[in-house]
Write a structure and sequence with these properties.
The protein is an alpha/beta fold and 217 residues long. 44% of the residues lie in helices and 12% in strands. It folds into 2 domains: 142 residues, Rossmann fold (3-Layer(aba) Sandwich), CATH 3.40.50; 69 residues. A 6-stranded parallel β-sheet has the order 3-2-1-4-5-6. Helix 1 packs across helix 4 and helix 3 packs across helix 4. It is globular. 44% of the residues are buried. InterPro entries: HAD-like_hydrolase_sf (IPR050155), HAD-like_sf (IPR036412), HAD-SF_hydro_IA (IPR006439), HAD_2 (IPR041492), HAD_sf (IPR023214), PGP-like_dom2 (IPR023198). Keywords: Hydrolase. GO terms for molecular function: phosphoglycolate phosphatase activity. This is HAD family hydrolase.
């Protein structure tokens, strides 16, 4: 048996545009300089309060970051409706999930900096909720790269970290996997560069979702 744990934003779905627009409106509301798209992409994967603090050059979360986090959360669904933005799947993701979901030697889960509500919306929108049997979100665990998301998913499914594969697009995913003792697969279609993923512990790089399948054989 193996446990496959997928990141969400930048790995399964292309949500950078939605995240950036919500972040832009949040920073504007608080009179902060508008972030660049590259700044937003660099923090995708972190828990939201930590991400907002990092974008303002702060190593620790302060009260303003907490206030901005609350405002961001209140805006997210509104922006999603304004843009009619459904966080589309990256090409090939549906086919890859369909290919592995019927296997009896593989369990599928999610480890994400999204809220549990946000992950649930993505899963239901794309019909993945029936395939993902375990999940840890920013509501459940410390932010990546802390290993808790992985170790708690392992505990819930009675799997060993050595038999677990984390698939993600961010350096935080690679660092989290290594800290938990799991294998790390970086994906080249997300928001970090291949060089960054390798430098942060990726055991392999997938350039298309169908290349992930070979790691579950």
């Amino acid at each position: 048996m193996k446990l496959a744990l997928f990141d969400c934003d930048g790995t399964l779905v292309d949500s950078a545009g939605l995240i950036h627009e919500t972040m832009r409106r949040t920073f504007d509301k608080f009179g902060r300089p508008e972030p660049r798209f590259e700044d937003t992409k660099a923090i995708i994967g972190l828990s939201l309060d930590i991400a907002i603090a990092r974008m303002q050059g702060r190593p620790h979360v302060e009260q303003q970051d907490i206030d901005m986090t609350a405002h961001y959360k209140s805006l997210f669904s509104i922006v999603r409706q304004d843009l009619d933005y459904k966080e589309p799947l990256f090409p090939g993701i549906r086919e890859m999930i369909d290919a592995i979901s019927g296997r009896d030697d593989l369990l599928i889960g999610a480890v994400t900096g999204k809220s549990r509500r946000g992950l649930k919306l993505v899963m239901e929108t794309h019909g993945f909720d029936k395939h993902f049997i375990v999940a840890r979100t920013a509501d459940d665990c410390p932010s990546k790269p802390h290993p808790a998301m992985v170790t708690e998913c392992c505990d819930e499914t009675s799997m060993n970290a050595a038999d677990t594969i984390v698939i993600g697009d961010a350096v935080y995913d690679m660092q989290m996997a290594k800290a938990a003792g799991a294998k790390a697969i970086g994906v080249a279609w997300g928001y970090a560069s291949v060089d960054e993923l390798i430098a942060n512990g990726a055991d392999a790089i997938a350039y298309h979702p169908n290349e992930i399948l070979r790691h579950f054989s």
